[in-house]
Amino acid sequence: MDRYIDSHNHMHALSWDQWELFAMTGMAGAILSCGNPHVYREIWETPPTAEDIFRFWDSPIRMARVAEEKHFMRLRCAVGVSSMTRVEGWEELIEKLPEYLDDPHVAAVGEAGLDPSQYFQLSWPLEDQARCLEAQARIAAGKGKPLILHTPTPKKSRDFLGKVAVQEEISPEEFRLHYLRRDLEIIDRAGLDPGLLVIDHVDGTIIDFVHRQTRAWCAISIGSALRPIHPDQVTKWVKEYGPGRIMLNSDHLGYRSIDFYSVPKTLRAMRRAGIPDADIRRVSFDNANGLFRLGL
Ligand SMILES: [Zn+2]
Fold first, then answer.
1. How many alpha carbons lie under 13 Å from residue 283 in its C-beta half-sphere?
2. Which of the chain's ends, N or C, has fewer CB atoms near its CB within 10 Å?
3. Residues 283 and 2: beta-carbon distance below 8 Å
4. What is the pLDDT of residue 249?
5. Is 245 a residue whose pLDDT tops 70?
6. Lowest mean pLDDT among 71-85, 94-108, 155-169
């Protein structure tokens, strides 16, 4: 069995048995992306407040502290204000964010990034989202910590528990590239070193752009039904772009169907396709281990 690091998931929304199952699939470590109310199977009728989000940061940090003792997995948190749910009074969170980054169990800022659609129909104007993202990128730059950039997936309201506010209808390629470019302008302005930027949820619509037009990390989320990516596709990308900047994650959460074995299946597909062990290890372990300083 291959040991791997899941560079982005929301397993704090899942149960004890599910954590045990992850550990048994070979997950040696993971980065918990905190701050998203929608990863739990809950429905909100009013926007969460800063107070709510503090709770979404604090609880996973406490869980990360005991993960090694209880489940033999090293967990670290990414804390941030996500654009996927509108947050009332996000400025208060930004004020406290630098202090959170000093916690040894907090490894990164995020996930954050512009998203035109919000959960629970609580829409959030893009200009205000942009201010929130820029503030977070500045803090990441100042602290020398990685920023996990959420790139938006076009969503259909009917697929979700609680409706999603959907604002536009353009092709997935146009949609994905448009928001990534806007994100990158903001992050660049904030002065974040590209070596500290993880562009996440990369798929076929943006992987070429990420490798050719940026120097950021390229994270691929493969465990959620929201973004079905076949293991053979990941194998092709690792062959084409090399293992240098790719890192794999599941993005496991509690509100959509997930595949517990998505990462191990992909590791086996890569081995079957003749990708060298060292390259498999880079995309599934070494790259995340180094960037997030997991020390595994
Ligand atoms: Zn996520």
1. 29
2. N
3. no
4. 98
5. yes
6. 155-169
DSSP category for residue 84: T
- Rg of the chain (C-alpha set): 17
**The CATH number of domain 4-261+280-291 is 3.20.20.140:** yes
What's the gap in Å between 189 CA and the centre of ligand 1?
Answer: 24
d(CA 30, CA 11): 9
Number of CB atoms found within 10 A of residue 57's CB: 21
Q: Are strands 27-33 and 106-112 parallel, antiparallel or unpaired?
A: unpaired
- Sort strands 147-149 and 164-165 into parallel, antiparallel or unpaired: unpaired
For residue 9, report the distance from its CA to the centre of ligand 1, in Å. 6
* 245 vs 283: CA distance, rounded Å: 8
275-295 mean pLDDT: 98
Q: Residue 111: which residues within 8 A CB-CB, separation 6 or more?
A: 8, 33, 35, 36, 78, 80, 82, 148, 149, 150, 200
**pTM higher than 0.85:** yes
Rounded average pLDDT over 113-131: 94
pLDDT at 167 over 90: no
Ligand 1 centroid from CA 41, angstroms: 14
